[in-house]
Specification:
Elements (H helix, E strand, L loop, with lengths): L12 H16 L10 E6 L5 H12 L3 E5 L8 E2 L12 E2 H11 L2 E5 L7 H4 L3 H9 L4 E3 L6 H15 L6 E6 L9 H12 L3 E5 L9 H14 L3 E4 L2 H5 L4 E5 L10 H8 L9 H4 L6 E4 L11 H4 L6 H19 L5
Parallel strand pairs: 1-2, 1-5, 3-4, 5-6, 7-8, 7-10, 8-9, 10-11
Helix pairs in contact: 1-6, 1-13, 2-13, 6-7, 6-13, 7-8
The chain binds phosphoric acid mono(formamide)ester.
Length: about 325
């Protein structure tokens, strides 16, 4: 039994499959009391619509209690560095926050996006690691440099539509957006699809948009273990050809991290990476999805978002079911 849900790296394929099976049962039978008397602190250091709603509703549906905290807004700002003179905006230290919350709640869920100043710093995932270190209750990742809850929802959706996913072609495509965004969903997309033995293609505009080597190595190793392939390409036609599932996300180029003006000089050249009907027409009748939120006619066209093959809403719904399954698992509860 796992104590935390910080990423899926240490969860085996069969453990994740078990979660998806339970999620499927919860989809058909959503209500229960298996989390009765369990309380959760949901800490959002960044905005959310889907994550906040699906966690609050999911916890309620299983009889538990959720408390929403937004440090810096309706809760005191938190200092995460040690041995600092706290003369900035933060009113309290993670050591006290984690210790106090651990006396009130049974689990702490955290959303903490990167700061977009230094990738070397952000890639250490310091906020969630600090909660793991200083709290005595389970820690759940609601998106930091990976988005493991989204991973589960994505794979539940992929399996529903493709059935056996092994050696089906999963395309993780970069798409345009005016601002450089978090790599979390892309890191997660290649991690979970490779773990489930899909032939994974990462399409991005040029070498600067290749994801951090940790996730490239992880996906490569997963594919080797599963007898699948991992391919990186900058060729749109090659990438979309015969794809069975297209997953889009925009992210920032890591070599220009913390330097959005320089990154823009790259980014502005690649608006044609937007997902459209022509690209989807090159696939093997693929389904399309995105984690949402999505800017229409920037990241994907109206026609793609409104097409029958777009399963983004279903993936968003599945967040509710997979998170409930994951929370039950952390407490050793069954449905
Ligand atoms: N996909 C996702 O995490 O959505 P929110 O940012 O709205 O929570």
């Amino acid at each position: 039994m796992h104590k935390n849900f910080i990423n899926t790296e240490n969860w085996s394929k069969s453990e994740l499959e078990d979660l998806l099976t339970v999620a499927g049962e919860l989809k058909n039978n959503p209500f229960g009391q298996n989390l009765k008397n369990k309380s959760f602190a949901l800490l959002f250091l960044n905005p959310s619509m889907r994550t906040r709603t699906s966690f609050e509703i999911g916890i309620q549906q299983l009889g538990g209690i959720a408390v929403l905290l937004q440090p810096g807004k309706d809760a005191w700002g938190i200092e995460f560095n040690n041995n600092v003179v706290m003369d900035g905006d933060a009113e309290e230290h993670i050591k006290e926050v984690a210790a106090v919350l651990s006396t009130y709640v049974d689990a702490i869920a955290v959303r903490a996006f990167p700061k977009f100043i230094s990738w070397e710093d952000d890639k250490q995932d310091k906020v969630i690691q600090a909660f793991k270190k200083y709290a005595s209750v389970p820690i759940i990742n609601m998106e930091t440099i990976v988005h493991p809850c989204q991973e589960l929802a994505l794979m539940m959706t992929v399996k529903k539509h493709l059935g056996e996913v092994k050696n089906k072609k999963f395309l993780m495509t970069w798409t345009y957006q005016p601002k450089p965004l978090n790599t979390a969903v892309a890191n997660s997309g290649i991690s979970i699809s490779s773990k489930f033995g899909m032939d994974v293609t990462l399409l991005c505009p040029n070498k600067h948009y290749i994801l951090d080597e940790k996730y490239i190595e992880l996906a490569t190793k997963n594919c080797e273990t599963q007898g699948a392939t991992f391919t990186i390409t900058h060729d749109i036609e090659e990438a979309y050809k015969n794809a069975d599932f297209v997953y889009a996300k925009s992210w920032g180029a890591l070599p220009f991290y913390g330097n959005p003006e320089e990154e823009w000089k790259q980014r502005r050249k690649y608006q044609h990476f937007m997902v459209d009907e022509h690209k989807m027409g090159m696939t093997n009748n693929a389904k399309f999805s995105h984690c949402l939120p999505l800017r229409r006619n920037i990241k994907a066209t109206d026609a793609v978002m409104d097409a029958d093959y777009c399963v983004a809403i279903e993936e968003a719904e599945n967040r509710l079911h997979v998170q409930k399954a994951m929370m039950l698992s952390l407490f050793g509860e069954k449905i």
